[in-house]
Specification:
single chain; Rossmann fold; alpha/beta
Length: about 280
């Protein structure tokens, strides 16, 4: 685990600065969920964008199931740390797309867990369509807000969450929280610090209306438990014992297809003929 968050933050910003200088991009775009991952990503990018005169564009995209407290936190982070923030409601668009693109939207049991996941996938993909169009309009790229814990758990929607550049993709969720606390402690403006700390203390949720919290879906009591289980699995995969049946470990194993997406059959499994 990270022990010096000052150096880690400096390194992330250095990498982003170099990338932007080399790419010639005019903007960074991300979805503002009111959660810790998007908040931390925004705060990390803010001084780099200010220094390089690159627009930092964030949108709070709500679709039916987003709660008022999530929307409020997203608005605070957006207005304090972005150069361009706006709330967007895609509820009407979702209703039209879900009706047109699914065969059972009007007759399905809305309380069925599998149906909620399907609708959550559509919502996530709609959000990403919106963000990518915005990035194209402003000659930019979409920031990824996923972390390493979510990567291992497959806790994201294929073609609906992962962006172009990830500053925190290789941070454990517990490191995300710790880094956010460090950054808040360094802020001179108390309103800015409180906005970030509100995201730290909030119940983690994907805003898709599948369960009341991310931990409900993951079936764990805390992210400390989740991270320690995953670390133990990575260190000693053959010595898990009864922990091999824990929902966290099972979720990791069952989501391997996401981390290998798209899967392409190796050429040598098809033919011995060379490519050229």
């Amino acid at each position: 685990m990270i022990t010096d968050y000052q150096i880690a933050v400096e390194n992330i910003r250095k990498q982003l600065r170099q990338y932007l200088q080399n790419s010639g991009l005019k903007s960074l775009v991300l979805g503002q969920s009111g959660g810790i991952d998007s908040a931390l990503s925004t705060v990390l990018a803010t001084p780099v964008c200010q220094e390089l005169d690159v627009e930092l564009i964030s949108r709070s995209i709500t679709i039916i199931t987003n709660k008022p407290d999530e929307i409020e936190r997203a608005a605070d982070i957006g207005k304090y740390f972005s150069t361009d923030f706006a709330p967007i409601d895609l509820t009407d668009s979702f209703e039209g797309i879900a009706t047109a693109m699914t065969e059972d939207y009007t007759i399905a049991d809305r309380n069925q867990h599998a149906f909620k996941i399907r609708m959550g996938n559509i919502k996530a993909r709609m959000r990403m369509i919106y963000l990518y169009d915005l990035a194209s309009k402003h000659q930019g790229m979409v920031l990824s807000t996923d972390n390493y814990t979510e990567l291992l758990l497959g806790f994201w929607t294929l073609h609906g969450d992962v962006g172009d550049y990830g500053m925190i993709q290789n941070l454990w969720k517990t490191e995300v929280y710790a880094m956010a606390r460090y950054l808040a402690s360094e802020m001179e403006n108390p309103d800015h610090a409180n906005a970030l700390l509100a995201c730290v203390s909030a119940v983690a949720t994907d805003g898709l209306g599948i369960t009341n919290s991310d931990l409900d879906q993951i079936q764990a009591s805390s992210y400390e438990e989740v991270d320690q289980l995953l670390i133990q699995m990575l260190k000693n995969p053959d010595k898990l014992g009864e922990l091999a049946n824990h929902p966290v470990i099972q979720r990791k194993n069952n989501s391997e297809f996401k981390r290998n997406n798209p899967y392409n059959i190796p050429r040598n499994e098809i033919t011995l003929a060379p490519l050229f």
